[in-house]
């Protein structure tokens, strides 16, 4: 008979993510292909690792995949302050038990017993209860903190400290699955993931989606008309291809421009001054600076030409429809 969850585990399960498809979820051929590959690896029992730059849709892919597994989802975001206790748990104070014996009315006998109280963390709960663990930006945590994952992913055993929980190892639940994400380009606050851990995962590189997928996601996330969203996506993609940037313009930039244009009621057109300013505010800070490190006027002129080219009166847009369904 399966053991009932501890009170700590039950509280975590009660607060676990219950993912449901929403109106912003879309489905395209490219997303289908990634989703089906990753789901096949997870069903065999291997963890999946989505690796890519900021704004490439890694977390959305991970959560959409976790939804497909139909198990409680625990989301963990890596942090430089993590240690092993941050993943598995540790002592969280003490509990005192006191017994007062008044069997003989004239004599009072008192016994006290103090024991540490163990508090399970996300990895322990996921391993014991068969949850799906989504470990976002796992390489922001030190490698020493993540070492506990090695036996979990390979031998399916969670090794625990000798003191505290009352057992030194836990057999991982057969329904436990793990999905990781990382950003190899963001060096600030990240750590090199140990080869032994990467070797236990199936890594899928997520750079940027094809044009149709980016347009479909931008439409779903902003509510903007497809023809206008396509103009914004094409502009951002062209800026990305130019390599005239220090911070890579991603799909997130397209979504931000489209969402604000829709909310502020701006026409996606070069003769709409507020829309032009919006694009410059979102993109100019990513452009390469001048020799002295200050903004280069020539880069703003380049961006202005991109806006005119893709959002001018003569701009043409070729669209192919996307299907609603899975989040990116």
SSE blueprint and pairings:
Layout: H1 7-14, E1 26-27, H2 29-44, E2 48-51, H3 58-69, E3 73-77, H4 84-88, E4 89-101, E5 109-120, H5 122-129, E6 132-136, H6 143-146, H7 149-154, E7 157-159, E8 169-171, E9 177-182, H8 195-198, E10 202-205, H9 211-222, H10 226-242, H11 251-264, H12 273-283, H13 297-311, E11 323-324
Helix pairs in contact: 2-3, 9-10, 9-11, 10-11, 10-13, 11-12, 12-13
Q: How would you explain this protein's 3D organization?
A:
With 328 residues, the chain is an alpha/beta fold. Helices cover 40% and strands 18% of the residues. The strands form 4 sheets. It has a 5-stranded parallel β-sheet with strand order 3-6-9-2-10, with helices on both faces. Strands 1-11 form a two-stranded antiparallel sheet. Strand 4 (89-101) and strand 5 (109-120) form a beta hairpin. Helix 2 packs across helix 3. The longest helix is centred in the C-terminal third of the chain and has 17 residues, at 226-242. The chain is elongated. Residues 318-328 have low confidence and may be disordered.
């Amino acid at each position: 008979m399966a053991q009932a969850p501890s009170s700590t585990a039950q509280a975590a399960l009660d607060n676990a993510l219950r993912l449901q498809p929403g109106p912003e979820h879309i489905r395209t051929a490219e997303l289908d292909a990634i989703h089906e590959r990753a789901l096949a690896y997870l069903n065999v029992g291997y963890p999946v690792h989505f690796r890519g730059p900021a704004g490439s849709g890694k977390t959305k892919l991970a959560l959409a995949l976790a939804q497909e597994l139909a198990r409680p989802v625990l989301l963990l975001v890596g942090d430089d302050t993590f240690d092993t206790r941050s993943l598995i748990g540790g002592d969280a104070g003490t509990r005192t038990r006191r017994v007062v014996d008044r069997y003989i009315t004239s004599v009072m006998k008192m016994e006290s017993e103090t024991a540490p109280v163990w508090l399970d963390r996300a990895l322990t709960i996921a391993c014991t209860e068969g949850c799906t663990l989504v470990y976002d930006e796992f390489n922001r945590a030190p490698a020493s903190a993540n070492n506990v994952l090695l036996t979990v992913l390979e031998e399916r055993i969670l090794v625990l400290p000798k003191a505290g929980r009352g057992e030194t190892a836990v057999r991982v639940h057969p329904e436990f699955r793990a999905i990781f994400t990382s950003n190899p380009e963001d060096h600030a606050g990240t750590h090199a993931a140990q080869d032994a851990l990467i070797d236990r995962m199936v890594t899928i590189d997520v750079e940027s989606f094809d044009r149709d997928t980016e347009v479909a996601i931008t439409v779903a996330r902003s509510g903007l008309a497809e023809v206008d969203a396509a103009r914004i996506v094409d502009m951002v993609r062209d800026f990305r291809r130019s390599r005239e940037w220090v911070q890579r313009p991603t799909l997130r930039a397209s979504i931000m421009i489209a969402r604000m244009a829709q909310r502020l009621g701006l026409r996606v057109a070069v003769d709409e001054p507020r829309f032009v300013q919006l694009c410059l505010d979102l993109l100019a800070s990513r452009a390469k600076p001048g020799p002295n490190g200050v903004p280069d006027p020539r880069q703003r002129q380049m961006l202005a030409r991109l806006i005119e080219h893709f959002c001018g009166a003569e701009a043409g847009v070729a669209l192919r429809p996307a299907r609603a369904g899975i989040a990116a």
